[in-house]
């Protein structure tokens, strides 16, 4: 038995010596080359497109802060200066996280004409183009908070890469991976006033190693449009319709980069419309859904609210009455009408209809309420008879009109802008 063990030990020693010789002479048993020198080409791809069995060995992510100490660190460029986020930004982040479905879309969740956000999760895998080998996986969230201003031709964005998690196989090193964000602007001249211009921020691109994003995730962009003073009295509201685009790209020294054009889009409008818009100038997120909300339980406007509710939900109860009448405002938008002469014609036709149905009501506390409103393109003179009139208390009618005008000015609703109506119980 002793002699047999001794022979086995001699065989193992000989095999080890042969292996060392092959390594020293560059033989077939030499250490595998770096990924970058492999004939196989690797690329980033979305994990959702990778078969589940290929992800099993890459299903245990760790935060980048935990990953980095165990791997060789590369020299990192200085991070951009940090800027403390305002209370408004923090509040928007909290609300945005609660709007998960909308927030992860290309346009993000648009809270209002003045606030928008995107929280978009990414899950990327590095694998060879034959789909047989995976060597790394990257998880992160892209956040973008947008702030437009009523009273200024300006919009700000807080852009960031956060919650970075990684996992690698073999000699792949996630500390060498980079993420880039690149912004660009497109001005839509067909929906802008003459000579539309947008001034981009000084820095519109940031490309960093993961470690830099991890320590300084946020950066800031401000877009403005030149302010040439009030010209609205001549018909020039200095409207500038534009789209802010963000392209995202991810790189590794050992893989073809992943790029996504239009990872985020933000439609904005600058204007100097004057008093018709409330504050004389401002900027809005154009895709925000503007709503006039009224309650049937509000004693100040309960008659107005009930009239609108019947017009939208129960048009058969309204006048003029005809089969198949459908009145817009809930599913199809109304559009603001600023022209005072056209508004006057809408009111005249509506009052004439009230008189024909209820007779002379002058000297009473009643007034002729109309829906859609005289200050909309869908008013009674549109020609399709899809409107309603009703006699209601004058003070109620006045309060409803004040609510409508406040909604216009608080949201910078300009001539032709769409808006919706919602009546609550």
From TrEMBL:
Pfam families xrefs: DNase_NucA_NucB
Superkingdom of source: Bacteria
Record flagged with keyword Signal: yes
The entry's keywords: Signal
InterPro entries the record matches: DNase_NucA_NucB
Signal listed as a keyword: yes
Domain (Deoxyribonuclease NucA/NucB) ranges: 341-421
Endpoints of the signal sequence: 1-30
Name of the protein: Deoxyribonuclease NucA/NucB domain-containing protein
